[in-house]
Amino acid sequence: xxxxxxxxxxxxxxxxxxxxxxxxxxxxxxxxxxxxxxxxxxxxxxxxxxxxxxxxxxxxxxxxxxxxxxxxxxxxxxxxxxxxxxxxxxxxxxxxxxxxxxxxxxxxxxxxxxxxxxxxxxxxxxxxxxxxxxxxxxxxxxxxxxxxxxxxxxxxxxxxxxxxxxxxxxxxxxxxxxxxxxxxxxxxxxxxxxxxxx
Length: 198
Ligand code: FE
What we know:
The chain is an alpha+beta fold. 20% of the residues lie in helices and 30% in strands.
């Protein structure tokens, strides 16, 4: 049942082939992501498993030339990120449950919450980037259930130098890793072809 993800990956690659500027990329890529997360029947269980102590980031796909990557974020009850940046564009699509994203802005050298947190519901898509706002803190909206969002980044996010912004000020370098060592098999279409032949 990975077909929706495979179609998304294919369409996203074609979109990047057109070399869109960032506003077009976020709009058209966001529409593709909206279509992907509008249904919740395709994410394999292995990429939806929470961890009791930490939110998980499962790589679902890395573009062969690292133009983009697709990650499932699995939030256990009450789990949250530190305040962090991305340094590349990112699209966040809510698949299951709900999350809050609180944007941060710099005021006199300190990073403070800017505006109201955005609450994402299934099907909703949000964008981040150095251009549209890159620093935020995200948390599961629920204290008693798992939430999952699908993230698309303009790079292999496991190879990007980023920062967290601790409450005491300044910023710390970090590189996010992936929770999985295996990837979903998007490319074995033998069952599909066999049933089409039968
Ligand atoms: Fe983020």
